[in-house]
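quick q for whoever's on today - can somebody do inverse folding on this one?? i tried earlier but teh output was garbage lol. tokens:
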């Protein structure tokens, strides 16, 4: 007889079932239909936990009683059950988002623009990338590694002025992401000699040239930015801020870099 995998139980828990509910539902799928005794003997769990789980599963529409004497239970077919769970999650997501956005607009304390925040870990970096790109209202200046190009799909206003620097010549980006005011610059064409005396300091950085393509830089609406340096390591880390001094400095540096980086003709 097939065993119920830990991966299956964890997946069902992620979709909103309690652990015993996930185990009971999976057991009913395995047996097609079963009495309570068969379920708790197979799972080796307390009888009250099975009854409680069956009640919860019936309330969720995932289990039905097909006989009352003796009580026999049957699982809703998996495709229907999972689709129902997804719909429940989507409705909950919509409701929660409306409430949370209302709370967000009612912030009791304004963010201190002087603070320089640190980003640590890939998840934090990616969440900050999505947040900045999606909330931009006027402009985006962005440097993205190849593996993060799909973050352009988070642009909500397709008419935004977007200046993208990548290390390559992808000419299809504007049409692929429906970006109507996109310019693309190829980082491979940067000549450090264009930066005059600064070029000797750039050349002395302890970083192989190919590593620069791993940099992440996002600058939105001329008032907020994030930067993740390209230094190799197991954990991504960077900074993000609205600090006026840093914004001024970032604006100067980014302007110089983009100015000296050739534009790629787009389709």
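ok took a stab at it. sequence:
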């Amino acid at each position: 007889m097939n065993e119920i995998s830990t991966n299956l139980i964890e997946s069902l828990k992620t979709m909103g079932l309690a652990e015993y509910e996930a185990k009971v539902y999976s057991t009913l799928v395995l047996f097609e239909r079963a009495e309570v005794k068969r379920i708790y003997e197979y799972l080796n769990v307390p009888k009250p936990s099975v009854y409680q789980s069956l009640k919860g599963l019936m309330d969720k529409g995932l289990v039905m009683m097909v006989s009352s004497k003796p009580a026999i239970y049957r699982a809703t077919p998996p495709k229907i059950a999972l689709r129902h769970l997804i719909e429940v999650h989507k409705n909950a997501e919509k409701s929660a988002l409306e409430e949370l956005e209302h709370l967000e607009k009612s912030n009791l304390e304004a963010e201190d623009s002087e603070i320089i925040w640190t980003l640590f870990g890939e998840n934090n970096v990616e969440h900050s990338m999505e947040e900045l790109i999606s909330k931009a209202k006027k402009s985006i200046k962005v440097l993205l590694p190849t593996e993060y190009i799909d973050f352009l799909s988070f642009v909500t206003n397709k008419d935004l002025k977007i200046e993208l620097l990548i290390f390559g010549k992808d000419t299809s980006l504007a049409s692929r992401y429906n970006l109507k005011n996109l310019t693309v610059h190829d980082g491979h064409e940067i000549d450090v000699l264009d930066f005059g005396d600064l070029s000797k300091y750039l050349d002395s950085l302890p970083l192989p040239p190919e590593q620069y393509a791993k940099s992440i830089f996002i600058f939105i609406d001329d008032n907020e930015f994030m930067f993740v340096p390209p230094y190799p390591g197991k954990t991504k880390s960077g900074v993000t801020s609205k600090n006026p001094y840093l914004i001024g400095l970032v604006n100067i540096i980014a302007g110089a870099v983009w100015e000296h980086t050739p534009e790629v003709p787009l389709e």
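fwiw DSSP finds nine helices and eleven strands in the chain. also The chain has a mean pLDDT of 88. so keep that in mind when u check it
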